[in-house]
């Protein structure tokens, strides 16, 4: 006999009988039953106590403990469907890890990492529990369907210690959490040299120091290639990424992240460099990118990148040097680019288009130095003035320069205010 099961990731049917005890349940009541496996499904618990909740048409069963094979569970219910709660332990999700270098294998990623040596290569399958601390030079590669490291909404997923050189490839790092008493980086806290390739960092929540998805500390060097950072959240500093070190992000997407107090999806506050190449920063709650550091010492470059449809400014530069090359800033609802008094922003062959603000400077609002080289500011809107560019008259540092074929046109209610450059 079979019954339906479902959980957040997928749903389907299973057909092996596993229920050992069946108890009729009155409407509105409940009863405890014991469920166990009839076969050998590998390591893990073979039985669990569960509660059946009665109802008029549907009864649900929620295991309180893990099964050796979560996917091989079948429920026998009296007149109803079955709903299996998401498993909460590593054994429940068939975590399998093989150390190719040492020829060993295990069911705990945390334990296998702890036993690793410099230069080891680990292959991971299934879903493994987080709170993984890496202090050696290793490569972890996910294989099979949806290889995942999860914090189960309770703990940080991965931490890389100072000096360690780590590569994470083809993995999902998700459901991490850090609370007020801990540093940020609910998905990943990087104090070492970390390269992330073809992976997804999602649904992580940091309560302090930002970096819901990734916190790259002052000692950290971060490279992200062909990856997605989405659905992460924090109270302020970088819902997706908080960079305090040196970071380079290529062919990646930072999307749908949330910073509860109006912060950005990406915050960089580093004396090092932050580079985005062939990437997209879009649809985030708050600003897309916030650059704030070091009285102009922090260098930020965006190359062939799109910053779009964020609910605040596309790029907010309170302090730093930023260069946009062949980059588009469009559709942001807090203005396209905001430039602070100690900052310099240079656009080369770039476009600022279709942004809006309820104040001044729909395309670009500047207190500092702004240079446009062969770039276009068009179709932006400001509620008050400076639809294209607004140079703040109360700032002695506000300076706008247009070079080459640069143009500012078709903005509402006007193109330029506070400057004679356009």
Explain this structure.
By secondary structure, this protein is an all-beta fold. The protein is built from 1 helix and 49 strands. The chain has a 14-stranded mixed β-sheet with strand order 7-6-8-11-14-18-22-26-30-33-36-39-43-47. It has a 12-stranded parallel β-sheet with strand order 9-12-15-19-23-27-31-34-37-40-44-48, with no helix packed on it. Strands 10-13-17-21-25-29-32-35-38-42-46-49 form a 12-stranded parallel β-sheet. β1 and β2 (11-14) form a beta hairpin. The chain is elongated, with a radius of gyration of 26 Å. The chain starts with a strand and ends in a 5-residue tail after the last strand. Mean pLDDT is 81; it is low at 1-92.
């Amino acid at each position: 006999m079979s019954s339906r099961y479902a959980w957040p990731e997928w749903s389907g049917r299973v057909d092996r009988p596993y229920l050992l005890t069946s108890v009729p349940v009155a409407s509105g009541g409940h009863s405890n039953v014991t469920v166990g496996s009839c076969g050998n499904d590998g390591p893990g618990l073979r039985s669990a106590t569960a509660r059946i909740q009665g109802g008029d048409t549907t009864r649900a069963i929620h295991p309180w403990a893990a099964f050796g094979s979560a996917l091989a569970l079948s429920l026998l219910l009296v007149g109803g469907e079955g709903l299996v709660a998401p498993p909460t332990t590593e054994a429940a999700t068939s975590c399998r890890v093989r150390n190719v270098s040492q020829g060993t294998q295990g069911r705990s990623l945390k334990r296998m990492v702890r036993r690793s040596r410099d230069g080891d290569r680990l292959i991971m399958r299934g879903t493994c529990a987080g709170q993984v601390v890496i202090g050696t030079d290793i490569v972890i590669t996910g294989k099979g369907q949806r290889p995942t490291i999860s914090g189960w909404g309770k703990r940080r997923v991965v931490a890389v210690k100072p000096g360690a050189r780590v590569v994470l490839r083809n993995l999902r790092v998700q459901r991490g959490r850090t609370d007020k008493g801990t540093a940020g980086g609910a998905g990943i806290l990087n104090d070492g040299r970390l390269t992330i390739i073809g992976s997804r960092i999602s649904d992580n929540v940091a309560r302090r120091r930002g970096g819901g998805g990734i916190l790259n500390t002052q000692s950290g060097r971060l490279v992200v290639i062909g990856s997605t950072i989405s659905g992460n959240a924090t109270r302020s500093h970088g819902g997706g990424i908080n960079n305090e070190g040196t970071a380079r992000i290529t062919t990646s997407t930072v999307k749908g992240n949330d910073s509860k107090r109006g912060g950005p999806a990406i915050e960089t506050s580093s004396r090092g460099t932050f580079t985005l190449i062939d990437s997209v920063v879009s649809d985030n709650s708050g600003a897309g990118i916030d650059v704030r550091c070091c009285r102009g010492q922090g260098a930020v470059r965006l190359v062939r990148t799109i910053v779009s449809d964020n609910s605040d400014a596309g790029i907010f530069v309170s302090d730093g040097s930023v260069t946009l090359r062949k980059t588009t800033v469009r559709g942001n609802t807090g203005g396209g680019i905001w430039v602070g008094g100690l900052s310099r922003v240079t656009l080369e062959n770039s476009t600022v288009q279709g942004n809006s603000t309820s104040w001044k400077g729909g395309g670009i609002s500047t207190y500092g130095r702004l240079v446009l080289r062969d770039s276009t500011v068009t179709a932006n809107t400001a509620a008050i003035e400076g639809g294209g560019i607004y140079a703040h008259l109360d700032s002695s540092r506000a300076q706008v320069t247009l070079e080459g074929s640069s143009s500012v046109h078709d903005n509402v209610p006007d193109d330029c205010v506070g400057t004679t450059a356009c």
